[in-house]
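Batch manifest line 289
LIGAND: magnesium ion
JOB: complex structure
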Amino acid sequence: SVMPATLSAISNSAKNGILAKGGVHLENLASIQAIVFDKTGTLTNGTPIVTNQLFAEHVNKTRIIQMVYTMEKHSNHPLAKALITWCEQEYNVETLSLNNVTHVDGLGVKTMVDGEEWRIGNAIFVGKEKAEDFCQHLQNIAACSHVFVAKDEQIIAMFTLQDTIREDSRNAIHELKALGIEPIMLTGDNENTARAIANQLGIDHYKANCLPTDKVNEINKLKQKYKNIAMTGDGMNDAPALATANVGIAMGTGSEVAIETADVILIKNELSKIIRTIHLSKKMNRIIK
Ligand code: ADP
Ligand code: MG
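JOB STATUS: finished
ARTIFACT:
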């Protein structure tokens, strides 16, 4: 039977903007020593915009734009959405009929068309060295995400995208640290963007270029160091990590899989509600025990 104190804690936290799938998750949240955050869509708004584009010489730009537009429609990654919006705003773009586009979690999208292999995604997906060569003469692109377009293993275009930090991220990190809870960021994005965001937020520990499985491995490692840890994420790619942590926290506007997998949901994406809930849960634990 549900204890009245538990029920009232769940309903109080729901009123406060946090949906817990059981009292035990609130209890666990109250005793976390570390909290892991995904970057895109969790600490940031996840609505990046395209800030720059670079094409290789002698390429068919129209074709590239059409491929980007069509292939990214098969992904629901925030970067995909940004590229689709940009294509629509900048070009009179048409959707091609491609029926074998696959989304590779944490890397990008790929397809085979007319005997050509197309890949759109991060540096790891198209080859780190080639990616570095392609943008070596560019300056001031440090703190942004890069999306590369490769055809038959040749990089033919690159886009830079800039995201914005959520309004309450910095404050939430500050308050967590004040409570003695260690914030950690794990991101699939590149090192430069990761460092810039971590610095702006006051996060001392972060890891860039994480595949979904890397996030799980990191959490398993952290579990040996900390008794109780939480993971906060929004993407389909965060689901395994959400399931691995002692408490999985999903953003309300996150993917369905993330919400299904998590123990706790931030209904309106308000990170600061985590701190309120920790305080409420500590109070609840005192009442129950
Ligand atoms: P995070 O949310 O921490 O940025 P993700 O695992 O969602 O991590 O993404 C990792 C990286 O994979 C992104 O930063 C991006 O570079 C690349 N990526 C994933 N999906 C796409 C896509 N549809 N188009 C382009 N790049 C993508
Ligand atoms: Mg994300």
